[in-house]
Design brief:
A hairpin with a 2-residue loop joins strand 13 and strand 14. This protein folds into 2 domains: about 160 residues, 2-Layer Sandwich (Chloramphenicol Acetyltransferase), CATH 3.30.559.10; about 290 residues, 2-Layer Sandwich (Chloramphenicol Acetyltransferase). The protein has 17 helices and 16 strands. About 10% of the residues have low confidence.
C-alpha cells in the first residue's frame, strides 16, 4: 500500500509501527547514547564520519510517517546533515553533573517528526576531552542493532588507515553476553512470535474490555496462549515513589564503572551469572533509595520489563525491532543481599524456561496492525504491570576509536513506555561494566542517589563471597587476589 515505484517510500513493519505510535509527551521513544572520549573531537571530522558511515544505512535518510491506516518510511528530499549533527558546550564547571543535566534535557526534548528521527550532539568541553550524545527513535531499530550501528562508526586503531575489523568474539557466548542463554529457545520460536500477532489481534479488544477473557484463552491450551494469559493476569505493580503520574522531564545519572573481571569472579564465587549479580546490585540500590524516601519496602517486589533479542546476534547490524519483553521480578523488599541475589537468579531461571518474549513480540505486531485507538489502552494494560525497564547490552572488550580519538566510557538508555517512568541500563565495554539510570523527574528527582549505591551493593556481595567457602569453587590465584582487595 505504501511502497512507491521510485523507492522513495516503503511500508514500515508492524512492530516498528508499534514503537512509532508509542510516543507520548511523558515518554519519548528515543534511545539515548553517551560516548565519552579521551581527547577533543573535531566537529567537521565527526560530521564527515557520520556522512560516510552512519548514512551508509539508507534508513537514516528516511523520515517516519504515521497515518491512521499504517506507517511508512519516506526519503527526506530536504535532508540536511547540519541539522542532525550539532555542537554543544556545557555550562559552569562542565563536569559530570553538568553533562548529566545536559543529557537529561536532550532525553526530554522530542525529535522533529518532519525530519529523520535522529540527532548527534558533539559536546566539546568535558574533562579535557569530548562527548558524543546520540538520540535515535526506537522505530528505526532496537538497542542491540543500534549498538552495532554505533560500533560501525568506530575503529580498533587510532589511525583510520590502519582500521581493523572489530572482532566478532564479543557476539559469542561468554560472561558479557548475559542474555544469550535466553535467546536460543526464543529464536527457535520466532516464527510463532510473528504468527501469534494475528491471533492476539483477534482477541485484543476482548482482553482490554475484560481481562478475564485471558482465563478462557489459557484454557485453549498451548504454550503461547498460556504465556499470553499469564502476562495479562499479572497484578499491577505496587505503588511506590518510583511509580505514579509522569511529567515531561527526564533526569539521568551513571555510576563509576566496575571491573568486569571482578563481576565475573563474584558470579563464579556465588554460583550465579554476571547478569544475576548486576541486577541484584541494581535492586539493592533501589531498595536503599526507597528507604531514604521513607517508603515501606519490607517484602516489596517490583517488576522490570527486560528486552530479549529474537534474532541471531550476527544479524544485529540489520535495522528494525526484533525483540520481545519479559517481566523480571526485582526483590527490593529483601534486606539480605545474598538472598536478594538468589531471588533474582531464580526469577531469571524461570524466565529462561518461558516464552514471554515470543508472546510480547507477537503483541507488538498486533498493536502495529491494529487501529491506533487500540494501542493506548493495550499499552497501559501492560505498563501498569512494571515499574522499570532494565537493559543489559554486551559491548566489545577492546578499546575503540572515533576519528582517531579513544572512547573511554559508553552509556545508553532505552525509552520507557506507557506509564513506566524508570530505566536501568547496563553496558560492558573494554573490561568495565557501566550502570546508568534514567527517570521521570517526578518519580526520581535525583537519580544519582540510586547510581551512587551500585558499587556499595557490589562490595556487600564481595564481602559475603569472602565469608563463604569459595576456595573449593574457584581456583586460587587471580580470583583470590581479586577478592582479597575487599578484605
Amino acid at each position: 500500500m505504501f511502497d512507491s515505484a521510485d523507492g522513495t517510500r516503503e511500508a514500515m513493519s508492524k512492530v516498528d509501527t508499534a514503537w512509532l505510535r508509542m510516543e507520548r509527551p511523558t515518554n519519548l521513544m528515543m534511545i539515548t547514547g553517551v560516548l565519552m572520549f579521551a581527547a577533543p573531537l573535531v566537529h567537521a571530522e565527526i560530521k564527515q564520519l557520520l556522512g560516510e558511515r552512519f548514512l551508509a544505512y539508507r534508513r537514516f535518510r528516511q523520515r517516519a510517517v504515521n497515518t491512521p491506516s499504517g506507517a511508512y518510511w519516506e526519503t527526506d528530499a530536504d535532508f540536511d546533515l547540519d541539522w542532525h549533527v550539532r555542537v554543544a558546550a556545557l555550562p559552569g564547571a562542565a563536569d559530570k553533573i553538568e553533562l548529566e543535566n545536559f543529557v537529561g534535557e536532550l532525553a526530554s526534548t522530542p525529535l522533529d517528526h518532519s525530519k529523520p528521527l535522529w540527532q548527534f550532539h558533539v559536546v566539546e568541553n568535558y574533562r579535557g576531552g569530548s562527548v558524543l550524545v546520540a538520540r535515535i527513535h526506537h522505530c528505526y531499530a532496537d538497542g542491540l542493532a543500534l549498538v552495532q550501528v554505533m560500533l560501525s562508526l568506530t575503529d580498533t586503531a587510532p589511525e583510520p588507515e590502519k582500521r581493523a575489523e572489530l572482532a566478532a568474539t564479543w557476539l559469542h557466548r561468554d560472561g558479557t553476553n548475559v542474555w544469550q542463554r535466553m535467546l536460543e529457545p526464543a529464536q527457535a520460536g520466532l516464527g510463532k512470535a510473528l504468527k501469534v500477532g494475528n491471533k492476539v489481534y483477534g482477541k485484543m479488544t476482548e482482553m482490554i474490555n475484560d481481562p478475564a477473557v485471558a482465563a478462557d484463552i489459557a484454557r485453549e491450551g498451548g504454550e503461547i496462549t498460556r504465556e499470553l494469559a499469564h502476562a495479562l493476569l499479572l497484578p499491577d505493580d505496587p505503588q511506590t515513589p518510583l511509580k505514579g503520574p509522569l511529567g515531561v522531564s527526564k533526569r539521568v545519572a551513571w555510576a563509576d564503572p566496575l571491573p568486569l573481571e571482578e563481576v565475573k569472579t563474584l558470579g563464579r564465587a556465588l554460583g550465579c551469572t554476571v547478569n544475576d549479580v548486576l541486577l541484584a546490585c541494581a535492586s539493592g540500590a533501589l531498595r536503599g533509595y526507597l528507604l531514604d524516601q521513607g517508603g515501606e519496602v519490607d517484602g516489596l517486589t517490583i517488576r522490570a520489563t527486560v528486552p530479549v533479542n529474537l534474532r541471531p546476534l550476527e544479524h544485529a547490524k540489520k535495522l528494525g525491532n526484533h525483540f520481545g519483553l519479559v517481566f523480571l521480578e526485582l526483590p527490593v523488599g529483601e534486606a539480605n543481599p545474598l538472598r536478594r541475589l538468589e531471588r533474582v537468579a531464580a526469577s531469571m531461571r524461570e524466565l529462561k524456561r518461558s516464552r514471554q518474549a515470543i508472546v510480547t513480540l507477537g503483541l507488538l505486531a498486533a498493536l502495529g496492525m491494529g487501529p491506533q485507538a487500540l494501542q493506548a489502552p493495550a499499552l497501559e494494560l501492560f505498563s501498569r504491570k512494571a515499574t522499570a525497564v532494565a537493559t543489559n547490552v554486551p559491548g566489545p572488550q577492546q578499546p575503540l576509536y572515533m576519528t582517531g580519538v579513544q572512547a573511554t566510557e559508553l552509556m545508553f538508555w532505552v525509552p520507557q513506555s506507557g506509564s513506566i517512568g524508570l530505566g536501568l541500563s547496563i553496558l560492558s565495554y573494554n573490561g568495565r561494566v557501566h550502570f546508568g539510570l534514567i527517570g521521570d523527574a517526578k518519580r526520581v528527582r535525583d537519580p544519582s542517589a540510586v547510581t551512587q549505591r551500585f558499587a556499595a551493593e557490589f562490595e556487600k556481595l564481595m564481602l559475603i563471597a569472602l565469608m563463604e567457602d569459595w576456595d573449593e569453587r574457584i581456583a586460587a590465584g587471580d580470583a583470590a587476589s581479586t577478592l582479597q582487595r575487599y578484605l
